[in-house]
Amino acid sequence: MTSISQNSSTATRRLDVVIVGAGFGGMYAVHKFNAMGLKIQGYEAGSDVGGVWYWNRYPGARVDLPSIDYSFGFSPEVEQEWTWSEQFAAQPELLRYINFVADRLDLRRHIQFNTRVTSAEWDDARQVWVVKTDQGDVVEATYCIMATGPLSIPKDPEIPGIGRFKGELLRAGRWPHQPVSYAGKRVGVIGTGSTGIQIVQEVGPQAGELFVFQRTPSFTMPMRNVPLEPDYVAEVKRNYAGLRESARNSPAGGIRPASTRAFFSVTPAQRLSLMEDAWKQGGLAMLGTFSDLLVNEEANEHVAEFVRGKIGEMVKDPVTAEKLKPRGYPIFARRPCLDSSYYETFNLPTVHLMDCNEDPILEITDKGVRTQSGEVELDMLIFATGYDGLTGAMLAVDVQGRDGLRVSRKWSEGARSYLGIMMAGFPNLFMTTGPNGPAALANIIRISENDVDWIADAMRHMSATGQTAMEPTAEAEDGWMKTVAALSQRSLLNKAKTWYLGANVKDKPQGLSMFTGGFPKYREYCALATQDGYRAHFTFDPVTGSASS
Ligand code: NA7
Predict the structure, then answer these.
(1) What local confidence, expressed as pLDDT, does residue 8 receive?
(2) In the 8-state DSSP scheme, what is residue 441?
(3) Measured distance CA(452)–CA(36) in Å, rounded
(4) Which end of the chain is more exposed for a tag (fewer CB within 10 A), N or C?
(5) What is the residue-averaged pLDDT of the chain?
(6) Pseudo-torsion of CA 416, 420, 423, 429, nearest 10°?
């Protein structure tokens, strides 16, 4: 494909593609669009590539999908040259991998680091995106790719007094690059999602004392991580193509266990034996025991009760064990966590579970955390309080489409998109892993690759047919939103208060803005959108009509 850039009469740099973000999605976009001969520029707020794995250097940070699955599949060279050491890689190894890819594919020369994109405005007359950064850059591009990720904007807890704390205040999603010492310190952790769980099991044995402030307990299952033996790695390397194909054809876009067996289709003794096996096997095996765990509440409760029983066996103090047992929402409705020693950490005499429901946090003081019953003095306070997920990073940029329509207005009652990739009213603006796509419900790297490939095909189509702008029709977007909503109604994911629903952010529109129909079905919809020369679902230049809001 030849470059379609032209020099503008002003000094503003004219590009084909601006790519915002250098996580997995942005890195693949940089590689792909550069290989297509397009004039590209990437921007990244961090000082290097890696996205969440660049920022999340907190102790114990580790991927909860198998490393061989949580890696790029578009480059056989990268697959063959890189060797994973563990079944579930820790953050330092993930970041080494990401850096290896950036070096091997020479990606960094296309990315400007330490630069945050602040606005992107569509100039309809000239059919370009005008993109500005906090470093004073102003560039114009035919296409703008928001590879900003679903978990890029960490969220502080809504507790008064955060600025007053005089000890060390650390945020999991913005962890310092220097080593942190916990020895002899009184450390507090607020938040017990997958991040908090990873931190607690790592810091608990090191800290002088650890206070874990828990509002909602999570279900976590044994990871049973293992080193990868050379013979196994060799097998994997011989079979990567097949593994990727099988991942793309599985509901979660990954090579994880799945079952066609409904819970009540087997006897109680068989069910118990299957759950025991899954517990012993570890990883995501439990999720793959039965087919109906996310749709049949009664089946789900049986599995939840099995896990509560295991918590009771692992935690010695019965009162603490009881508090750690999640109740009131279905298992797997929050992101299922994997741990190595989370529950056992509470058996240490120096680790204290602080129940924020029984004894709510009132404020942060200069010395620590004040709860209803008193003040807990701390040397260090760690926030593992989650993210403004799915929409936060897009909304952090002032994106203005046709007729002055801002994304913030378009999404004022909830995120709207077509396929999680494009939006009516925003020509030539593309998202990777955007809201209303599978987002957090499938392997983020498989989704990123799917989305970037889809975008590349759309660009090729435009180039081949002489178009300068494309956007989905309002009808296509409405239809997609109805599909997403209809599928989500059946899902038990709606029954827990999570970032999946926007429930963790005050005043955020609530609702499950993710496609729950499975990755293969999503890919089918993506393919369907391109049929008939894209004519059924898109309008092309000259763009007419007004944007949906
Ligand atoms: P999560 O899963 O959103 O967890 C955030 C945790 O922080 C959760 O336990 C919250 O409790 C807790 N939280 C937030 N605010 C408060 C206050 N004010 N007081 C007490 N506790 C609070 O984020 P993670 O970073 O753990 O995981 C995000 C994703 O990363 C995960 O899904 C994986 O995909 C990887 P709450 O549930 O609101 O009661």
Answers:
(1) 42
(2) G
(3) 12
(4) N
(5) 95
(6) 140
The span from the CA of 520 to the CA of 47, in Å, is: 35
Cβ(338) to ligand 1 under 6 A?
no
Is the domain of 327 the same as that of 395?
A: no
Q: Is residue 297 domain-shared with residue 402, that is, in the same domain?
A: no
- 548 band by pLDDT with thresholds 50, 70 and 90: very low
If you measure from the C-alpha of residue 27 to the centroid of ligand 1, how many angstroms do you get, rounded to a whole number?
Answer: 28
Domain of 443: which CATH number?
3.50.50.60
Domain limit, last residue, from 331, 347, 377: 331
Please indicate whether residue 256 or residue 149 has the higher confidence score (pLDDT). Answer: 149
The best mutation among 192, 324, 514 to test binding of ligand 1, ranked by most ligand atoms within 8 Å of the C-beta, falls on 192
- 73 located within any domain: no
Measure 390 CA to ligand 1 centroid, in angstroms: 14
Q: Is the predicted pLDDT of residue 179 greater than 70, yes or no?
A: yes
- pLDDT recorded at residue 543: 44
The number of folded domains in the chain is 2
pLDDT digit string, tens, across residues 57-107: 999 999 999 999 999 999 999 999 999 999 999 999 999 999 999 999 999
Q: Is 363 in the pocket of ligand 1 (CB under 6 A)?
A: no
Residues 327 and 396 in one domain: no
Q: Which atom of ligand 1 is nearest to the CA of 386?
A: 23
Instruction: Calculate how far, in angstroms, residue 61's C-alpha sits from the geometric centre of ligand 1.
Output: 15
Query: Within a domain: residue 275?
Result: yes
**Considering the entire predicted model, what is its pTM?**
0.95
Name the residue at shortest CA distance from atom 18 of ligand 1. 157
Ligand 1 touching residue 371 (CB < 6 A): no
More confident residue, 400 or 491: 400
533 and 399, same structural domain? yes
Q: What are the backbone dihedrals phi and psi of residue 27, each rounded to the nearest 5 degrees, phi first?
A: -65, -45
Q: Whose C-alpha lies nearest to ligand 1, atom 6? A: 191
Last-in-domain residue among 315, 331, 347: 331
d(CA 507, CA 408): 13
Nearest to 150 by CA among 417, 500, 495, 424: 500
Range(s) of the domain holding residue 322? 257-331
In a domain, 68, yes or no: no
Together in a domain, 293 and 398:
no
How far, in Å, from the CA of 74 to the mean position of ligand 1? Answer: 33
Q: Both 132 and 19 in a single domain?
A: yes
Q: What is the rounded distance in angstroms from the CA atom of residue 77 to the CA atom of residue 79? A: 5
The alpha carbon of 379 and the centre of ligand 1 are apart by a number of angstroms equal to: 22
Give a yes or no: residue 99 inside a domain: no
**Residue 542: per-residue pLDDT:** 53
Q: Give the tokens for residue 117.
A: 């994109």
Confidence tier at 544 by pLDDT (50, 70, 90) = very low
Phi, psi torsion values for 328, nearest 5 degrees: 90, 0
Atom of ligand 1 nearest to the CA of 215: 39
Residues 395 and 529 in one domain: yes
Does residue 379 register a pLDDT over 50?
yes
Is there an atom of ligand 1 within 6 Å of 194 CB? yes
Q: Clarify whether residues 407 and 530 are in a common domain.
A: yes
pLDDT above 80: residue 2: no
pLDDT value at residue 228: 98
The helix (run of H) or strand (run of E) holding residue 524 is: helix 519-530
Q: Whose CA is nearest to atom 28 of ligand 1?
A: 386
* Alpha-carbon distance values, 34 to 1, 74, 80, 110, 456 (Å): 10, 14, 22, 9, 11
